[in-house]
């Protein structure tokens, strides 16, 4: 096992850097600019570890790729006699790890990866999407490294959130 020729593919840092550069270039070409809005939870309950309200006070511009490219996924528009009209749009976004680090982690060191509960704001349709799950191993160690985060999001249902990012299109 000391000289395993199959493991040599995973030790070539030049190929890994090339693959990472190609992923970033593809997202720049086929993706679009969004705002990543980080959440700060206030009044955390010590028993259930839930906050009573959230403040969104930092917004970072970055590019992401819409992986579910046909349209929004999920149940779509739903009409119920108990709830009323409900929109359950969902989507999957992709962001390269290096792009996330450059555009977000460099400015806020506590954000080492996308977090569940944070938001993605689309300026083109003025909608917020809440991050429900972050998959960091969707492309499983291609060439021996990880290059992207897949972010599963759903349309935000507003409930006592406070927006103080300094970005007028978000805070309005």
Short description:
The protein has helices at 13-30, 97-105, 168-171, and strands at residues 32-44, 51-66, 73-80, 84-96, 119-122, 127-135, 148-155, 162-163.
What labels describe this entry?
six-stranded antiparallel beta barrel, alpha+beta, 8 strands, 172 residues
Task: Tell me what you see in this structure.
The chain is an alpha+beta fold and 172 residues long. It has 3 helices and 8 strands. Strands 1-2-4-7-6-5 form a 6-stranded antiparallel beta barrel. The longest helix is centred in the first third of the chain and has 18 residues. The radius of gyration is 19 Å and the shape is globular. The chain starts with 12 loop residues before the first helix and ends with a helix.
Which series of helices and strands comes N to C?
Answer: HEEEEHEEEEH
Mean pLDDT over all positions: 78
- Let me know the largest β-sheet: 6 strands, antiparallel, barrel
- Helix segment count? 3
Which value, in Å, is the CA radius of gyration?
A: 19 Å
Number of strands: 8
Strand content: 35-45%
Class per helix and strand makeup: alpha+beta
Biggest sheet strand order reads 1-2-4-7-6-5
Terminal-residue CA separation: 60 Å
Helix content: 10-25%
Shape: globular
Low-confidence runs of at least 5 consecutive residues: none
